[in-house]
Structure formats: C-alpha cells, structure tokens
Amino acid sequence: MLTFAPVKDDEMKQLIVEFSKHLRDAVQICKATSVRTNGNFKNVVITGLGGSGIGGTIAAELLRNSAPVPIFVNKDYHLPAFVDEHTLLIASSYSGNTEETLAALEAAMARGATCAAITSGGRLLEIAKEKSLDHVVLPGGNPPRSMLGFSLTALLFLLGKYGIDQVGWFYKIEGAADLLDEQKQSLRNEAKELARYLEGKMPVIYAVDGYEGVAVRFRQQINENGKMLCWHAVIPEMNHNELVGWVGALGKEAVVFLRNKDDYERNQMRIQVNKDIISRKTGQMKDVWSRGENRLERMLYHIHLGDWCSLYLSELSGVDVMEVKVIDHLKSALGNA
Ligand code: F6R
C-alpha cells in the first residue's frame, strides 16, 4: 500500500490550498487596476511560457466560441507575420525576465501593436512602466506555476476590458472559486486516489478539443511538481495518429480521460471506442469528470484537481515538489535571471 510521505516542504501545498483565494484576490487586484479600454483590434496575441503561458492557452479556448477576433497563443521569441498596429499583444511572465516573452514583446512594440503586460516584476514591469503599457501587477515571490489563479484572472480581466471577451468570464471567476471551496474535500480525495493510480506509471492525459489547455496544465504540473514524464493528446486529433501508436505500448501507461458534461457527443462516442482499443494494451484507464455549471468552472475544477494530484505524486515518490533546478540552470546558462 502506497503511503503519502510527510510533506517536506509545505510551501507548495499551501499555495495549492489557497488557489480559490488566489482567484478572489486576483479579482480584487484587477478591479483596482486601471487600463485603457479604447481598443479596436483585428487580432490578439497572448505570449508567455510555462506557468505564465498556460493561462493564454486556457483563455483562448474559453473564448474560442465568442471572441470577435482570432486569439493566437505564442510561446516563442518570434511573432507571426500578421502582428501589426491592429494587434493587441498581452505579454505574461511572472518573473518578468523570461527572454522569449521579452523578445516577443519588443518585436510587437516595434511593429506598432498595442501591448499590455501581466507580471510580478522584473524587466517586464520596467518596460510596462517606461512605455506606459497597461499592466496588471501580481504578488511576487512564488513559483510561477503556482500563480495561475492570478495570471489567468488578469488575462480574462484585460480581454474583457479590451472587448475581446464578450461573455464576461472575469465576472464568473468568483463563482468558480466558490465551487472549488464547496468541492474541497471530495476534490482532494479524488486527487489522492488519482495520484496512487498514476504513481510509478507513465501518465497519459486525454481531453477533448477545447479543453487541451487543461490537459497541458495537468501534464506540466505532473512534470514540474511530480518530477515525472507524462504526455497528453486531444480527441479527435489523436484518433488520426496516436491511437495507432498504442500497438507499441510498453505496459507502463496509465490513461486519464479528462471528461466534461459538455464534451461534444461525437467525441464522447469516440472516447468509448478509444477505450475499447486501448484496453487491448492496458487495463489502466480512468475517467475523471469535471464539475461546474460553465466551462470556466469545469476547467478550473480539473486544473485544481491536477495541481493536487501532482503534489500527492511528489509526496508518494518523495521528490521535492518546489525545486525546478533544471529550468533555473537553463535560464542562467542563457544569461537570464
Ligand atoms: C516555474 C514554471 C515555469 C515558468 C517559466 C517561465 O514554476 O512554472 O514554467 O513559468 O519558466 O517563467 P515566467 O513565468 O517567470 O515567465
């Protein structure tokens, strides 16, 4: 029977405990932030990496069916050719010093795009102040991945202010925080069970299109907190390639289907057929259903569940949940803070 080791480092646990508080605090920070609201943009780019980039992927999916203009999520130094003076670019970097994000911002400013920033400090905050860019300042001093509640809220706030989010997702954040509080105990129990199921295996996270950001977040938290390899793919796309790859399964895979009650019915049918096929290679398959009355609530439910699961995985295997030395090493090898 696997046991959960006493937490060596309670800091990450506390940050996960406070996720719903982060969401509410972020709403207050945003309400106290003034931004220019006279945008009339032809397209939007959200640029950021890792824990600061994932909010962009999630926001773009959330707004996919309602945004009046395309939203492109950028995770590189370079920008797509369409970026010009009609573009809104939001640069998200918690440290404010991620070189890819800073390079993309500089390029966007050079092309005359309207730029805004989400950060806790660093060079990004300096640029935002120097150039009088709209910016939301997040509380500093924590691992960027643990601040998603803040960075995602700030993104939805800016997108609302600029008329890109016409649903008003920002105003639904507090309702989602309430749901997470209501579900607190059962969500943690479910995460613990999931961690026991995934421990020592190769987690494979599947979600339907439109919820890929959540699957990516799940994977990245397992990578960074749990210090484990993990992969994700999306249905229906993976039905046209990856499903064939199951022929070569190694037997260590443990599959998680992140499911939502609004998943398109044809994709739900696909999941059923996928299970039949995958079951020839592994009996390790699990459905994890979200809860919530809207897409944001369902996304945040799965995100929070994944955060807890990654923490429990770190406890099960006795690794330090906080450290990401290889990322720090890479940044310093490249001369970044
Ligand atoms: C570390 C983490 C990383 C960083 C990434 C970019 O907790 O999650 O993925 O988010 O290295 O750094 P920032 O967020 O400072 O731009």
What's the number of extended β-strand segments? 9
Tally of separate helices: 13
Q: How do the strands of the widest beta sheet line up side by side?
A: 2-1-3-4-5
Q: Which molecules are bound in this entry?
A: fructose -6-phosphate
How many angstroms separate the termini?
42 Å
N-to-C SSE string, H for helix and E for strand: HHEHEEHEHEHHHEHEHEHEHH
Major beta-sheet overview:
5 strands, parallel
Specify the overall morphology.
globular
User: Which percent bin holds the helix content?
Assistant: 40-55%
Which regions contain 5 or more consecutive residues with pLDDT less than 50?
none
Overall average residue pLDDT: 95
Question: Which band does the percent of strand residues land in?
Answer: 5-15%
Radius of gyration: 20 Å
- Classify the secondary structure makeup into a structural class: alpha/beta
Tell me briefly what this model is.
This protein is of the alpha/beta class and 337 residues long.
Q: How would you characterize the overall build of this protein?
A:
This protein is of the alpha/beta class and 337 residues long. It has helices spanning 10-17, 19-31, 50-62, 99-110, 122-130, 148-161, 173-182, 184-198, 212-224, 242-245, 265-278, 295-317, 325-333; strands at residues 43-47, 71-74, 87-93, 114-119, 134-137, 202-208, 231-235, 253-259, 285-289. It contains 13 helices and nine strands. The radius of gyration is 20 Å and the shape is globular. The N and C termini lie far apart (42 Å). The model has no long low-confidence stretch (mean pLDDT 95). The structure holds fructose -6-phosphate (F6R).
